[in-house]
Amino acid sequence: MSRSNSIGVPAAVRPPRSVGKLFGDLNxxxxxxxxxxxxxxxxxxxxxxVLYPYLPDHAKIxxxxxxxxxxxxxxxxxxTILMPLYVHRPLRLLLDADQATQHGVRxxxxxxxxxxxxxxxxxxxxxxxxxxxxxxKREEELEEALRRLEAQDRLVSLGLxxxxxxxxxxxxxxxxQGSIEKLNENTHDPAxxxxxxxxxxxxxxxxxxxxxxxxxxxxxxxxxEPVPLRHxxxxxxxxxxxxxxxxxxxxxNQVGAGDIVTGNSDRLIQVFxxxxxxxxxxxxxxxxxxxxxxxxxxxxxxxxxxxxxxDGPGIPADxxxxxxxxxxxSRLDAKGTGLGxxxxxxxxxxxxxxxxxxxxxxxxxxxxxxxxASEPRRQGSRASA
Length: 385
Prior knowledge:
Low-confidence stretches: 378-385
Number of helices: 10
Shape: rod-shaped
C-alpha cells in the first residue's frame, strides 16, 4: 500500500538504485580497485581450477598459496605504483587546477607542462590549459574594451559639459575683449599698454579654448601642422605669467630647439597650460619648474617625450592612480577643479600620444607627455602643397 502526503496525493515511490548506478557513482579510484580485484580474482581462480584436475593433492594446496601470493603482490604493485603514477596523479592535477580556477587563484590554474604525459590525460590537460589561456585573453580584451567604453562615456559627458560652459563664456568674453580694446585705444602709457596687450592675448586665448570646447570630442584635422615644442612651452608659460606666483617661480624651459611634433598648436598649448598650472600651484612661492624633452624610438617610429617636473610635495598616493579621472584633484582650494588633467589626457590621445604621471624620487611630481615626432618634409612636398 502506497503512502500519501498531507493533501492525499500518493507520494512518489523512490525506485531502488541498480547495481550499475551504484558502481557508476563510485569515484574512479574505487571503480578501478573493484575492476582490477575482480580481474585478478578471476585470473587466479581460473588458473587454479584449470590446473586442479592434473595435480596431486599436496600440490593443489601449494598452487593455491602461490596464486594467492601472486594476487597480493600484483594488487600491491597496481595500487602503490601504477595507479598513483598514471591515473590518480593526473586526476588530482586536473581537480586541483579546476579548484584554483573556480577560486580565482590564477597562478595555480594552469598545469605545468613538465607534469603532463603523452596519454589521453595529457591531451585533456593540454586542451584545458589552452582553453584557460584563451579565456583569460578574452577576459583581458573585454576588460580593455570596457575601459575604452568608460573613457568614451566620460569624454562624451565632458563634451556636453564643455559645450555648455563655452556657451556661457562667449558673451562675457566678447564684453571683456571689447572693453580691453577700447582701453587700449584711449591709453598711451607704455606699461599700461603692455599689460593691456597681455590681457588681450589671454582673452583671445580663452576665446580659442571656448571654441575648442564645442568640439571637445574630436580633433580638427585641417588644423594639424608642425609645432615647435620649445616655443609652445614658452607660449604656455607666458599665458600663466598673469599669475603673481609665476613671477616668483624658477621656470626653466629645456626643450630641444629642434623638437617638432605634428598637431594642433592651440590644443597642445592647452595641455601644457594645464600641466604648468598644476606645477605652479604645487610649488612653494620660489619653487622650481623644469620642462625638458628627449627623443624615443618605439616600434620603428620616432617620438618626443616632454616632461614637466616640479619640486612640490608630489601627488598623494591615493590620488595618483586616478589622477586623469574627471573631478579628481589633490588640491583643496577653489582652484582645483580636477578637470585640467582629464582634458589634457583627451587632447594628447587625440594626437595619438600618451601621458603619464609619477612622483620624482627627489620629491615633486613628474608629468610626461609623449607625442609622435614630426616627419621631416620631403623634397617635392612644397610643390604638391
